[in-house]
Amino acid sequence: MIDTEELRSFRCPGWASLPEIELYMDQVLTLVGKYFGIFSGADNVTASMINNYVKAGVVPAPKKKRYGKEHICRIFMICVLKRVLSISQIGRLLSLLEEKMDSEHVYGLFCTELDRSVGYIGTILSGGAAVNPACGDKAGAELSLQCAVDAVANCILADVILQQKPDKEETAEKQ
Fold first, then answer.
1. Do 23 and 67 lie in a common domain?
2. Same-domain status, 159 and 139
3. What are phi and psi for residue 48, nearest 5 degrees?
4. CA–CA gap between residue 110 and residue 115 (Å, rounded)
5. CA-CA distance, 173 to 175, in Å (whole number)?
6. What angle do the packed helices 87-100 and 103-125 form, to 10 degrees?
7. pTM score of the predicted model
8. Residue 165: alpha-carbon gap to chain centroid
9. Over the stretch 115-169, which tens digit does the pLDDT of each residue have?
């Protein structure tokens, strides 16, 4: 069960708090569990999953089996986003963002949004804030249903937005 206090106090580890040295796979897996264990499934990331992300081109290949900050940030983002987006959608999203800003800023934006959303949910669950006005006076199962349906709608919206701009590869193929 998710600890409400843990949600309220969650902070995505910022770029500056990540290790300056490159890490081996087992160290990366330990970091994922440490920082993102509160997200169901995030701490179940395996070495073979990360290898598949590399093969899919969503995470750059490690340098001499070592992962730097850019690798670690991408792995962190994948661990959270894979609950709602496919790996190819995540890759596309990160590519689109990195057309406009560097990896550090993309990760900073991710952390800001994650902290805001998770903190808000933690506050609601602890009863410290009025329930989202969009939810009205729903409670329990009804609120859970609305949240699930909203999540589906938001996933559809994210998918539509990601489909609106062609991939660089698709554009090159058409030329």
1. yes
2. yes
3. -65, -35
4. 9
5. 6
6. 120
7. 0.82
8. 21
9. 999 988 887 777 754 555 555 556 678 878 888 899 999 999 999 998 886 655 4
Confidence grade of residue 25 (pLDDT, cut at 50, 70, 90) = very high
Q: Are residues 65 and 86 in the same domain?
A: yes
Same domain, 147 and 114: no
What dihedral do alpha carbons 148, 109, 93, 67 form, nearest 10°? -110
Q: Which of 4-8, 48-52, 112-116, 130-134 has the lowest mean pLDDT?
A: 130-134
Q: Tally the residues of the chain.
A: 175
Number of structural domains found in the chain: 2
Q: Which of 13-27, 28-42, 104-118 has the lowest mean pLDDT?
A: 28-42
The answer to whether residues 38 and 143 touch, using CB atoms and an 8 Å cutoff, is no
Is the distance from CB of 15 to CB of 73 less than 8 angstroms? yes
DSSP state of 64: T
Neighbours of 133 (CB within 10 A): 6
Residue 103 lies in domain: 4-129
Determine the average pLDDT of the residues in 99-124: 92
Bridge partners (DSSP) listed for residue 63: 66
Assess contact for 124 and 32: CB atoms under 8 A.
no
